[in-house]
Amino acid sequence: MKRYFFFILVLVSIKSFSQEKDLTYFIHKARTNSPLLVDYQNQIKISTLDSLLNRATYKTQVAGNFNASYAPVINGYGYDTAISNGQVVSALVGFNQRILGKNQINSQAESFKLIKDALIVNKKIAVKDLDKSIISQYIAAFGTETKIGYNNKITALLKEEETILKKLTRSSIYKQTDYLIFNATIKQQELTALQLKQQYQNDLALLNYLTGEKDTTFVKLKNPDLSIKADSQERIIFFKQFEVDSLKIKNADKLIDNNYKPALSLLGDAGYNSSFIYQGYKNFGFSAGVGLSIPIYDGNQRNLQHQKNSMALSTIDSYNKNFKRQYDQQLLLLNQKFNQSIETDKVLQSQFFVAEALIEANKKLLLTGDAQITEYIIALSNIISIQDAIAQNSVNKLQIINEINYWKSNE
Predict the structure, then answer these.
(1) How is 26-83 classified by DSSP, letter by letter?
(2) Tens of pLDDT along 107-153?
(3) Which DSSP string corresponds to 366-399?
(4) What does the alpha-carbon distance between residue 169 and residue 159 come to, in Å, rounded to a whole number?
(5) Whole-prediction pTM value?
(6) What angle do CA 231, 232, 237 make, to 5 degrees?
(7) Collapsing DSSP states into helix, strand and coil, what is residue 95?
(8) Mean pLDDT in residue range 220-234
(9) Which of 174, 280, 381, 393 could form an SS bridge with 276, CB 3.0 to 4.6 Å?
């Protein structure tokens, strides 16, 4: 009676899920709660602001300046008034306008664009990494849930057979030892049921941990229904990293060259500037000028900087080629594993049909008292092992699909 109550408790706990949740729910929660994605999004916004700040430096810079000084001459001692003017008061509004060529402006704008592009690429990869981890754990939990469902069927079958065997044992058709052996098998199933339930609770807990949710609800997971996605029409995001890094270095070369071009600035001010030596009330005015800077020689720094960038480009190209080789090999290996899982599934399904037929035959023999209990238990153990192998192979196949989609899709 206690054992029967235990099974009822386990079955009720598994069947009475409070709700169903699908893979999309957990992925959405994980993306929403991820501080890393928030960080990247804010960095992207900051890069836009940095670009606007840089553009602001191209505009005329206006500043107000007020200065007042007094240099007394006491008993003939003091600053030379030809230099100090004795006293000076100035209240000026000055302006400075840098004159930049179109190429300089475009190169600086490109540098900020490439910084933003790199952040966007990193964010997309972070999303893919997060999704992959969530999907992987979801598959693991769903696999455990599938095993629970099949274990319940085996448990129900054993309970039915136990009732029949108990009656036949009382009628002396089967020995008491046969019944005890069968009863021990049921107890083993009880332990398996408990272990699977605990494992599923832990799998759900880890899934919620990865999504950033504090949730201990015992929910039912829907079939992830994963399939291999079509090849992306865009350049795979992993290769985009190398492309952006190369463009950054090429743009850095342009910025280096721009630094060696003549720099022209328009200068000016307007306001009051007086030493009060002669008609101070008339010392309102303005001034204008031009500033020109021409680089002549810097110890060959320009050429050395270009050499450094050339080496950096060579390094990126080498990493890119190596990654491409590993990338292709990775997909070949994953597709090979996927095909192997399909072949394995066919063999396991074939074995399952035979094992199931053997169980059905033993059930009929049990009713007539002709079944060998030990053989029946071996047959039960065999079909449980096969079903576990089918469930594990299904999990492996879904994990492989998750890996393939991670590498070949930009979503």
Answers:
(1) HHHHHHHH-HHHHHHHHHHHHHHHHHHHHHHTTSPEEEEEEEEEE---BTTBSS-HHH
(2) 888 999 999 999 999 999 999 999 999 999 999 999 999 999 888 88
(3) HHHT---HHHHHHHHHHHHHHHHHHHHHHHHHHH
(4) 15
(5) 0.85
(6) 125
(7) strand
(8) 86
(9) 280
Ramachandran sector of residue 220 (left: φ over 0; alpha: ψ -120 to 50; beta: rest): beta
Find tokens 């100035």 and name the residue.
90
> CA triplet 87, 88, 94: central angle to 5 degrees?
175
Tell me the C-alpha distance between 40 and 379, whole Å: 56
> Helices (H) and strands (E) in the chain — how many of each?
9, 6
State pLDDT tens for residues 298-353: 888 889 999 999 999 999 999 999 999 999 999 999 999 999 999 999 999 999 99
Q: How far apart are CA 392 and CA 398, in angstroms?
A: 10
363: three-class secondary structure by DSSP: helix
User: What is the β-pairing status of strands 20-21 and 220-221?
Assistant: parallel
Q: How many residues does the chain have?
A: 411
Rounded Cα distance, 323 and 101, in Å: 39
- Would strands 263-274 and 220-221 be described as parallel, antiparallel, or unpaired? unpaired
What does the CA dihedral 393, 396, 398, 401 come to, rounded to 10 degrees?
A: -130
Whole-angstrom distance, CA of residue 319 vs CA of residue 68: 62
Weakest mean pLDDT among 47-61, 77-91, 215-229: 77-91
DSSP 219: -
